[in-house]
Amino acid sequence: EDQVTQSPEALRLQEGESSSLNCSYTVSGLRGLFWYRQDPGKGPEFLFTLYSAGEEKEKERLKATLTKKESFLHITAPKPEDSATYLCAVQAGGFQKLVFGTGTRLLVSP
Amino acid sequence: GAGVSQTPSNKVTEKGKYVELRCDPISGHTALYWYRQSLGQGPEFLIYFQGTGAADDSGLPNDRFFAVRPEGSVSTLKIQRTERGDSAVYLCASSPDGGGQETQYFGPGTRLLVL
């Protein structure tokens, strides 16, 4: 069974304090790994898709990387508006469905 | 509209009642997905439509849950004899044609509370 584990569950940073979120996965035939951001009371907002080990993608203060077992979401010099829950999901095998982790709740204090 | 829309945004019902939740996907998207998200958890897959047909309904928890998409656009998730454990946020997502590793775009969700 496909599994996705995210750590830490919660992370508190000071503004400007860089850090990384982890997403480890166990799947048969990874087709894509997706990162989403979710604000309270809203639906997940797409950030990145990674398809193969070694791939990296960047958007503003965020950078996502992928290995054969895990993905990292690096946050450089975060701002309070980066506070949200970050969700990792995988698409695997012949299925279109996404399998999500439980998310990392990030709080950035000014 | 530009994004996925869902109605109602909130629904409160009593145990045993029937509810319908509606999803309007992004215009032109043929693939539509329903997920359920409990507090503190990630979204959990329920069902996937390709056009009018359910291509994968393996996530529906039991036969009280049913979903339709009769014209290949709007979808309705139907829950019969609701139970308190059905309380969750029901999320809908759509993607262009369900092929390859397409991005799924999510709506704001319907918050269902069963009393």
Write the layout of secondary structure elements.
The complex is a heterodimer of chains A (110) and B (115).
Chain A: E1 3-7, E2 10-14, E3 19-26, E4 30-38, E5 45-50, E6 56-59, E7 62-66, E8 70-75, E9 84-92, E10 99-100, E11 104-109
Chain B: E1 5-7, E2 10-13, E3 19-24, E4 31-37, E5 44-50, E6 53-56, E7 65-68, E8 75-79, E9 88-95, E10 105-106, E11 110-114
Parallel strand pairs in B: 2-11
Antiparallel strand pairs in B: 1-3, 3-8, 4-5, 4-9, 5-6, 7-8, 9-10, 9-11
Q: How many helical stretches of chain B?
A: 0
Radius of gyration of chain B: 13 Å
Largest sheet of chain B: 7 strands, mixed
Shape estimate of chain B: globular
Major sheet summary line of chain A: 6 strands, mixed
Structural class of chain B: mainly beta
Q: DSSP strand (E) fraction of chain B?
A: over 45%
The most extensive interface between chains reads: A-B, 25 and 29 residues
Total strands of chain B: the figure is: 11
Helix content of chain B: under 10%
Oligomerization state of this entry? heterodimer
Query: Which geometry of chain A do the CA atoms define?
Result: globular
Task: Looking at this protein, list some descriptive labels.
heterodimer, A: 110 residues, mainly beta, 6-stranded mixed sheet, 5-stranded antiparallel sheet, 0% helix, B: 115 residues, 7-stranded mixed sheet, 11 strands, globular
